[in-house]
UniProtKB/TrEMBL annotation:
Pfam family, one: UDPG_MGDP_dh_N
Recorded superkingdom: Bacteria
Stored InterPro entries: UDP-Glc/GDP-Man, UDP-Glc/GDP-Man_DH_C, UDP-Glc/GDP-Man_DH_dimer, UDP-Glc/GDP-Man_DH_N, UDPglc_DH_bac
SMART domains reported for this sequence: UDPG_MGDP_dh_C
Keyword terms of this UniProt record: NAD, Oxidoreductase
This protein's name: UDP-glucose 6-dehydrogenase
Annotated UDP-glucose/GDP-mannose dehydrogenase C-terminal domain residues: 323-424
Keyword Oxidoreductase: yes
E.C. number(s) listed in UniProt: 1.1.1.22
UniProt similarity note: Belongs to the UDP-glucose/GDP-mannose dehydrogenase family.
PROSITE patterns: PROKAR_LIPOPROTEIN (PS51257)
Length: 440
C-alpha cells in the first residue's frame, strides 16, 4: 500500500515509521521546513525509544521518506492519514480543528483514484463528516472514503503499542455499500501484518470510532483520578494505596493497570481530551459529569502537590532549596505538556523556595517553560545543597539513586516521593524524612 502521512508530530512520525516497517511505502509530509530538514538528515525531533532505528532502517530500505511538498505522495496514495495537531482552542476548551480542515482542503485538490482519507488525529465526534463535506465540496468527483482510525499510543512505548495493540479501531460509514467495502479492504490491508487474533480490527461507525478514542482516554484519566483520591483517603485513615490498588486490580472487572497514585495525570492527551469531551458533551446536551469532576480534581491535585514539600519539611519553603527530580509528564519522553512540574515548580518559587532540577530528557523544553528553575547536569548536582528533594517523574535512574550519596549531598535529608518509587521503611532506616503518596 502507498501511504501519505500529513503531520510529522508524535503520532504521524510513529505511525508513518511503523506502517513503513509493515512493508508499506510511506511519505511523511510536514509544513515545517526545519523539521523535514532534520528528519532527512536522520535526526528525530522527539525522544521516543526505538524510533531512531526504526526510521533509519525504513529510510535506508526505501519505504519511508519525508517531504515538504506532499502533492505527489497524496495523488498516488491508497490512504492519506491526517495526523496534525488538535490543540485545545483558547477560550472555550474545544479542540481546534483548523489544521485538520486545512489538510482536508489540501487533499481534496489532489485525490486521484480511490483514496481512503483517515483521521488519525484525535478529533471530536462529527469531524469525519466535516472532512468528507470539505473534500466533496472542493472536488465533487473525487472517489474517496473518510475513515476514523484513532491512535492509542503511549509516549515512551509507542512503537510497541502500534505493533502490538490491544485493538485497532476503524470507523467506516456505510460499510455495506461499495465505498465502505473498499475502504474496509484498504484498512484491513494496511494492518494485515498485525497478528489479528491478538489485535482485532474493530470496525464500527465513524462517529462511534471518534467517540471511542475520547471515551478510552477519559476512562483512563478517571481511573487515575479515582486512585489518587483513594490515596488521599488512605493517608487520612492510615491505609496503603498500593495494596488497595492491588486488592481491587486483581478483580478482572477492574484490572490492575492505571492504578498508580501520583501527582495527577499530565501529557499531550488526557488533559486535552478530557476537556474536549466535556465540551462536546455539553454542546450535545448530554453532560459527562464524572469527567467534568475528573478534570477539576486533577487540576486541583497538581496545584496542591507543592504543599506536600512544606508538610514533609514541617516548615515553610521560603529561603529553602528544593530539588526536583524529573520534569516531564512521565518517564521515557521529553514531553513537558501539562506536566505536574509546571504547577509544582512555580508554586515553590512563589512560596520563596530556590528550585533546582534535573530531567534526563526534558530539560531543553523545561528550560523554556520553567522560569527561575536552575537546571543541573545530573541528579546528584540537583540534590546538592537541597533542603528537600521531590521525585516528580519516575525515571528509572531515580529508582536506582545512591541514597547515601544523596543524603550526604543534601543540606537536610528530606525526600518527597510523588511516584512511590521508594519504600517508607527503607527511607526511614536510612535517616530520611520521607513522604509518599497514599501510604499512611
Ligand atoms: C495516553 C494514553 O495512554 C494513550 O492510549 C493515548 O493514545 C494518549 O494518551 P500518554 O499520554 O503517552 O498516553 O501517557 P500515559 O502512560 O497514558 O500517562 C498519562 C499520564 O497519566 C501521565 O502523567 C502518567 O504519569 C499518569 N499516570 C498513568 C498515573 O498517574 N498513574 C497511572 O497509573 C498511569
Amino acid at each position: 500500500m502507498r501511504v501519505a502521512m500529513i503531520g510529522t508530530g508524535y503520532v504521524g512520525l510513529v505511525s508513518g515509521a511503523c506502517f513503513a516497517d509493515f512493508g508499506h511505502v510511506v511519505t511523511c509530509i510536514d509544513k515545517d521546513p526545519s523539521k523535514i530538514e532534520r528528519l532527512n538528515g536522520g535526526e528525530i525531533p522527539i525522544y521516543e525509544p526505538g524510533l531512531d532505528d526504526l526510521v533509519a532502517t525504513n529510510v535506508r530500505e526505501g519505504r519511508l521518506s519525508f517531504t515538504l511538498d506532499g502533492a505527489e505522495a497524496i495523488r498516488n496514495a491508497d490512504a492519506v492519514f491526517i495526523a496534525v495537531g488538535t490543540p485545545t482552542r483558547r477560550g472555550d476548551g474545544h479542540a481546534d480543528l483548523s489544521y485538520v480542515y486545512a489538510a482536508a482542503e489540501e487533499i481534496a485538490g489532489l485525490i486521484e483514484g480511490f483514496t481512503v482519507v483517515v483521521t488519525k488525529s484525535t478529533v471530536p465526534v462529527g469531524t469525519g463528516d466535516e472532512v468528507e463535506a470539505i473534500i466533496r465540496k472542493a472536488n465533487p468527483n473525487a472517489d474517496f472514503a473518510v475513515v476514523s482510525n484513532p491512535e492509542f499510543l503511549r509516549e515512551g512505548a509507542a512503537i510497541g503499542d502500534f505493533k502490538r495493540p490491544d485493538r485497532v479501531v476503524i470507523g467506516v460509514n456505510d460499510i455495506d455499500n461499495d465505498v465502505g467495502q473498499r475502504a474496509r479492504t484498504v484498512m484491513g490491508e494496511l494492518y494485515r501484518p498485525l497478528n489479528l487474533n491478538e489485535s482485532p480490527l474493530l470496525f464500527v461507525g465513524r462517529r462511534t470510532s471518534e467517540l471511542i478514542k475520547y471515551a478510552a482516554n477519559a476512562f483512563l484519566a478517571m481511573k487515575i483520578t479515582f486512585i489518587n483520591e483513594m490515596a488521599d483517603l488512605c493517608e487520612a485513615v492510615g491505609a496503603d494505596v498500593q495494596q488497595v490498588a492491588r486488592g481491587i486490580g486483581l478483580d478482572k472487572r477492574i484490572g490492575s493497570k492505571f492504578l498508580h497514585a501520583g501527582p495527577g495525570y499530565g501529557g499531550s492527551c488526557f488533559p486535552k481530551d478530557t476537556i474536549a469531551l466535556v465540551r462536546t458533551a455539553q454542546q450535545y446536551g448530554a453532560p459527562v459529569r464524572l469527567i467534568e469532576t475528573t478534570v477539576e480534581v486533577n487540576d486541583a491535585r497538581k496545584k496542591a502537590m507543592a504543599g506536600r514539600v512544606e508538610t514533609t519539611l514541617g516548615d515553610s519553603v521560603a529561603g529553602k532549596t528544593v530539588a526536583l527530580l524529573g520534569l516531564t509528564f512521565k518517564p521515557n519522553t521529553d514531553d513537558m505538556r501539562d506536566a505536574p512540574s509546571l504547577d509544582i515548580a512555580p508554586a515553590l518559587i512563589a512560596a520563596g523556595a530556590k528550585v533546582q532540577a534535573f530531567d534526563p530528557e526534558g530539560m531543553h523544553e523545561a528550560a523554556k517553560l520553567l522560569d527561575g528553575v536552575e537546571m543541573k547536569a545530573n541528579a546528584y548536582d540537583a540534590v546538592t545543597g537541597a533542603d528537600a528533594v521531590v521525585i516528580v517523574t519516575e525515571w528509572d535512574q531515580f529508582r536506582a539513586l545512591d541514597l547515601d550519596r544523596v543524603k550526604g549531598l543534601m543540606n537536610q535529608p528530606v525526600l518527597v516521593d510523588l511516584r512511590n518509587v521508594y519504600r517508607s521503611e527503607d527511607m526511614l532506616k536510612r535517616g530520611f524524612k520521607y513522604s509518599s503518596i497514599g501510604r499512611g
